[in-house]
Amino acid sequence: MKLGFIGLGVMGGPMAQHLLRAGHELGVWARRPAAAQALVDAGAQSFPTPAALAEHVDVMFIAVTAGADVEQVALGADGLIHGARPGCVIVDHSTVAPATARALAARFAARGVDFLDAPVSGGGAGARGATLAIMVGGAAGALDRVRPLLDVLGTTIVHVGASGAGQVAKACNQLTMVAAIQACAEAARLAAAHGIDFGRVRAALLAGSAASRVLDVFGDKMARRDFRAGVEARLHHKDYAIAMDAAARAGCPLPLSAPVWQQLNALMARGLGGEDTAGLLRLLEMP
Amino acid sequence: MEIGFIGLGLMGRPLARHLAQAGHALHLWARRPASLEPFHDVAATCHASPAAVAAHAEVVFTMVADAPDVEAVALGVDGLDTGAHAGLIVVDMSTIAPAAAQRIGARLAQRGIEFLDAPVSGGEVGAINAALTIMVGGKPEVFARVKPLFDKMGKSVTLIGGIGAGQVAKACNQILTGVGVAAVAEALNFATRSGVDAARVREALLGGFAYSRTLENHGQRMLDRNFKPGFKSWMHQKDLRIVMEEAHRLGLMLPSAAATAQMFNAMVGSGLGEEDSVAMLKLLERMSGRDD
User: Fold this and answer.
1) C-alpha torsion B177→B183→B188→B194, nearest 10
2) pLDDT tens string for chain A (287 positions)?
3) Is the separation of the CB atoms in A94 and A73 below 8 Å?
4) CA dist A87 to A29, A113, A115, Å?
5) Residue of A234, A240, A244 to mutate when probing chain B, most B C-beta within 10 A
């Protein structure tokens, strides 16, 4: 099967490598050719535009940052829509607004092309280890065709529903996760304020009802004061705007997420956006 | 003066009539022709497009719901810009994002059209009584030319700064009124559920540091259980969305406004969107286990 991949960053780079290693013919396009070099060295073919790449492939993967980036790659002057052949499946791993995903799916459906929104959770480590959780919105038939490829990238692939449903699930993921990170940071701050080692608190809590993946992973980073990015906080900040806008559109109150969002705003203002979201702890230390 | 007016809803209709009553000739366009009916008794010409309105007017006012509506009227097919002559002044009284106002102002400037953002506060009653607060952004000399017209619509007319500054002031206004109406609703609900006469609490508090226009007016309407708009909750929700998007963009922490915005989400989601923002009281009563 001929595959294409656009967006070869922290997430997309290792994902594309997995597909190549699984024995597929892979084409790539990158705004900066240097970004594609590692893949070309590994045997991928480089194309001059997204349209030229799309013409060549059966399945197209996208993993870029924001909705505007996806729209540019998909619908821009040399975008995928000008090259994709009927029957092609586009799998978008980027995190964008559900409404954007639905609009893109409709545009491609008119050309006989299936567009799946397939955002992921698991960060750079999950991409490198091929252990991502992938939440998919779109036609079940299209997912069936690409599922063997997604199995190469992740361990949990869930068809959540129609177009946009994958992005709704991702918004839920981000709200749940960052609120938990904030709670973890507050616990760490409280422990420190009483002169207690948070590492011990965390160890005790992990055995009880407050145990969670976030307490395990982010609690550990906080205890060790390691604020280097896994996932940069600025990306959680970006995703929060998507989630909060989706909530407002639906008339859906999110009373806890709202102040967490404000903490992320403050994190950005303090210049901590390039660090890990565990930096929410640092924010509590510098009021 | 030849004046264009587009957006003849709850707010726009009385404002346009004030201008006609002051002796100005109105040039109108509306998406729905029914909106033009209340103007058969004044000096008003109805046109086929915003472009035609722009061709006949020296100043055009717009008063519509949201930024895409302003953009469609000002810059869309047959928009104001296509009919405009050099020196035309477009005054947008809608509430939209400051960045959107700046974008529209820049686009119009390319065509030699002057632009003011002039959002208002005071609701339908303020519009009917020509008692609005008008917050203006734009060039001082353009403001000076439109000021006599603003004075026919409002009592407090202030030039805040450059284009977009009026919308910043309006965003501040919506933070204060949104958080304020939520606070008044919480206080009155607290009094009632504590077995105390909320009307007496309001009366007592009006004499102290908790006095506010919101406690006085909105508080009274809550006690009267008068939830007719006024200012519809879905519009306040929209305005707080603008505020929160700006806060996100600027890296600003607005925890009280953020919480209040969620209350307005809940109002819209639970069917209170068409009622006045004082229906915040109903939401709190329901969330506290009492149905109205």
Assistant:
1) 180
2) 899 999 999 999 999 999 999 999 999 999 998 999 999 999 999 999 999 999 999 999 999 999 999 999 999 999 999 999 999 999 999 999 999 999 999 999 999 999 999 999 998 999 999 999 999 999 999 999 999 999 999 999 999 999 999 999 999 999 999 999 999 999 999 999 999 999 999 999 999 889 999 999 999 999 999 999 988 999 999 999 999 999 999 999 999 999 999 999 999 999 999 999 999 999 999 86
3) no
4) 21, 5, 10
5) A244
Q: Is A2 a catalytic residue?
A: no
B 210-239: CB under 8 A from A? 237
The distance from CA A11 to its chain's CA centroid, rounded to whole angstroms, is 8
Cα dist from A225 to A185, A198, A236, whole Å? 11, 11, 20
Nearest 5°: CA angle at B149, between B143 and B153? 115
Query: Which residues in chain A touch residue B263, judged by CB atoms under 8 angstroms apart?
Result: 253, 255
- The reply to whether A68 touches chain B by the CB within 8 Å rule is no
CATH architecture type of domain B168-287: Orthogonal Bundle (1.10)
Looking at 3.40.50.1000, 3.40.50.300, 3.40.50.450, 1.10.1040.10, the CATH number of the domain A168-285 comes to: 1.10.1040.10
Beta carbons of A244 and B244 less than 8 Å apart = yes
ipTM, two decimals: 0.76
Hey, is the C-beta of B68 within 8 angstroms of any chain A C-beta?
no
Q: Which portions of chain B are predicted below pLDDT 70?
A: 291-292
pTM (2 d.p.): 0.84
- Yes or no, beta carbons of B265 and A254 under 8 Å apart: yes
Nearest one of A55, A63, A52 to A19, comparing CA atoms: A63
What's the confidence (pLDDT) of residue B41?
86
For the domain A2-162, what is the CATH superfamily, name and number?
NAD(P)-binding Rossmann-like Domain (3.40.50.720)
Rounded Cα distance, A278 and A189, in Å = 12
Mutation pick from B245, B253, B263 vs chain A, by most beta carbons of A within 10 Å, is B253
Domain with CATH 1.10.1040.10 in chain B: 168-287
Angle between helices A198-206 and A165-193 (to 10 degrees): 130
